[in-house]
Design goal:
Helix content is about 35%, strand content about 20%. The protein is built from 13 helices and 17 strands. It has a five-stranded mixed sheet, covered by helices on one side. Helix 6 packs parallel to helix 8, helix 9 packs parallel to helix 13 and helix 12 runs antiparallel to helix 13.
């Protein structure tokens, strides 16, 4: 048996799949599975090798369980996360549950975070400072599944104490946005549906929305949204007076980032991006990942023509595979800044149309080394 592989009941098909389309499960779903298995261990006297759990989206899924054991009033179980084809820092994580039976505990279920689960140190996450970073939806889902599995014990008036841990969670957290959010010492338990869809990077998207919330909770009114590490470093250098909490890597998720920024009524939103992402933002794409939509070559060709590129070069740009081709060729003839300024203005126009709000927009366009090449602000 392949330990940790889980299947959604009735949702899998047997035909060959295309590359990149296999769904996976969230840390919350795996934590619920481990907690359910350990609870059943207390009820049955042994931990089952597979458990059927309710997901937050109302569907059910079957999870394989490993390292199950029962010792008196304590049971232990592990569910290994399978993120499917989604790039996920927590793929392969051992979501571990230790469930203790508390005699006379009044049918109460207590949920704690153990080693490898981050601790909340800043407001704005919807969790109390000092508590474990187990988000509200997975928290409810874990308790709901434990309550169903532990009903025979709870009916006797006993309680259950559930501790979720993740061996190596602190190391995994380094690859996430947790430290920026003020979640220290481990990963977060996430998941609003229980399902991770390929290349939706749901955990990343959820983290960036949390990052905006944290900035707002700390009274910040300026947000700097960047498409990656190099553009973030450039933005930090360009706007050194801003607090670190103002800087949020949105990656490909333009819509999620701007929706959060508008919801929290940010007064200034700065976008840091390179030519390819700038073009896709100008196209109005909610997600700029290469798999989601092709580059609009006519758009970047039109911009090149607008800033004075010769017709033969414009024709080449309209057939080139990447926006980088245009940036490099225009840089060679002294039009790099003009190209980036024109793209920035188009990107701002698209963002203003799609995400109206009280904010003033600025775009910081960077070259491929992450160096600022043009800064454009609305009404300049």
């Amino acid at each position: 048996m392949s330990v940790g592989h889980a299947t959604t009941s009735g949702s899998r098909k047997t035909e060959p799949r295309r590359r990149g389309d296999r769904t996976g499960f969230t840390t919350g779903a795996n934590a619920a599975a481990a907690a359910t298995a350990a609870t059943l261990g207390l009820v049955l006297g042994r931990v089952p090798e597979r458990v059927d759990c309710l997901l937050p989206n109302g569907r059910r899924a079957v999870f394989a369980i490993c390292d199950g054991r029962v010792a008196g009033d304590l049971a232990h179980a592990v569910s290994i996360k399978d993120a499917g084809d989604d790039p996920d820092a927590t793929n392969g994580a051992h979501l571990t549950a230790d469930v203790r039976r508390i005699a006379g505990g009044g049918a109460e279920i207590l949920l704690h975070g153990g080693a490898g689960i981050g601790v909340v140190t800043r407001p704005g996450l919807g969790l109390a400072v000092g508590t474990a970073a187990i988000n509200p939806v997975p928290r409810r889902n874990i308790v709901e599944n434990v309550r169903a599995a532990g009903e025979p014990l709870l009916a006797l008036g006993d309680g259950l104490e559930v501790t979720i841990s993740v061996p190596g969670g602190a190391a995994m957290a380094v690859k996430t946005l947790n430290a920026r959010l003020g979640i220290l010492g481990g990963i977060s338990i996430l998941g609003t549906t229980g399902i991770v869809r390929p290349y939706s990077t749901a955990a990343f998207r959820a983290s960036l929305v949390q990052a905006v919330r944290v900035a707002a909770a700390q009274g910040q009114t300026t947000l700097v949204l960047t498409t990656g590490g190099r553009t973030e470093q450039a933005a930090m250098g360009a706007f050194p007076a801003l607090s670190e909490v103002c800087f949020v890597q949105m990656g490909d998720f333009v819509k999620a980032a701007f929706t959060a920024a508008v919801r929290h009524r940010m007064q200034q939103v700065i976008v840091g991006a390179m030519v390819g992402k700038l073009t896709k933002i100008a196209q109005g794409l909610p997600v700029t990942h290469a798999w989601r939509a092709p580059l609009d070559r006519d758009l970047i060709g039109a911009v090149a023509a607008e800033v004075g590129a010769p017709p033969d070069l414009v024709a080449q740009i309209r057939t080139a595979a990447t926006a980088r081709f245009a940036a490099e060729r225009l840089a060679a003839i002294g039009l790099a800044a003009a190209l980036h300024q024109a793209l920035a203005r188009r990107a701002m126009a698209s963002l203003r149309r799609l995400y109206p709000g009280p904010h003033r927009l600025t775009v910081l366009a960077c070259d491929f080394d992450g160096q600022p090449i043009a800064t454009v602000t609305e009404d300049d």
